Write the structure tokens for this entry.
Amino acid sequence: MTTLVSTTDTVTRDALAVLQPGFTGTTAPDWLLRRVGEGLASVGLFGRNIDSPEQLSALTARLRAERDDVLVAIDEEGGDVTRLEVRDGSSFPGNLALGAVDDVELTRAVARELGRRLAECGVNLNWAPSADVNSNAGNPVIGVRSFGADPALVARHTAAYVEGLQASGVAACTKHFPGHGDTAVDSHHSLPRIDVDLDTLHARELVPFRAALAAGSKSVMSAHILLPALDPTRPATLSPQILTGLLRKELGYDGLIVTDGMEMDAIAGTYGIERGSVLAIAAGADAICVGGGLADEETVLRLRDALVTAVRTGELPEERLADAAARVRALASWTRGARGAASEPGADTQEGTAPGTGAGIGLIAARRALTVTGSAEPLTEPAYVAAFTPVANIAVGAETPWGLGAELSRMLPGTTTDTYGSDSEAPAAEVLRAAGERRVVAVVRDLHRHAWMAAAVDALVAARPDTVVVEMGLPEAPPRGAWHITTYGAARVCGVAAAEVITGSTGS
């Protein structure tokens, strides 16, 4: 790697300032600390970087020893997408559950408590909430991460989430602009295309983003999607028409614009991360998110040098890079002030628990979100849990547990769980053999999207009509089973709430 210029000159420091890279391990490596000292203004955290709240606090404190106002970002949506609790499952239901309850004060309280936990660990930028209107029920990457399919509902909950999160001193990053809900393709794998007219975009996709901006969202994340009605050639992340023309000029937004992960194939597979990063900054983005898949010093240096070279050759105006870096530093300054305000004596630190109960606000929300159809007697004997498991999308990840087997096992000792995938030859027969005389609880996720899963559950219910079916994804399929329980997400607390219903427990 050839360093093009001194690491202390203004252009190089600005190039470092606009990067939001990741790293491996649970302590900050020397190279990262060195680059923070040279001007790197942001660091992105992922599940691989987190073992415990105490470890995370020590990590962020070490980063701030190098630079007090460093932005420490994380992708913590709650629900299915959690990094704080990547190995156990989230203590908070996700957006779809909150949208199902449709109580904006509850959404605000959940976001505030999640923000408080982040701030307590030293995280000050959250790449959330998702403001996408999930108008396509077959969407493979948004689904339960959306508040719902109604633009007005998504708008009011997006605004409440932004307000709650930022009340805890954590900057919100409303995503994925201008809307990822009407896609049938995951941009982690290829470039999605949304072929709708401008009237539809303004009446549907943009409604929640307008609400987020009105609520004061400190940052907005761009989507790697092609919208020909706005720009027929470039995805939103690389489009001057979308980032500068629509978001800056038409919507009047003056905060930080962050890209989605540049190593996602929608960008990396078409433009490459260096070229893509230059185009993104030129288009109006202010910060380059990279590090979910590429998490090393070489990536940081490649992107830094690509930006510096683009300035030196005249491809990227120096003023545009300076403007982007200034917005990063302005947000960092806000978070430092907000951190002090949130830690003042008298600041509410008990919002996570409802008066008179031992249940956190996340579990209370998960209980309120449940929809139960059918009728059955509560289970009092050990059950058999059949978890029908699709391949997890990259945003959710495969390492976060989901379901309710562990909770049912705790409530009904002797309960066991097995997992069934699309490669199972005769899953219903396998379930019946394994269950024996025990009652079957079938746990599914997005049943409507998986024909193999629907066929297995139908066969199972036909053979055992007393089967309990728990849908932990998007509830588009008709209810099945003696009891059909919809949780609107697969967070740990959603499983706890469902297990309480199945066993007749009132919770505590």
Observations:
- The longest strand covers residues 171-177.
- The first helix runs from residue 10 to 17.
- The chain has 17 helices and 14 strands.
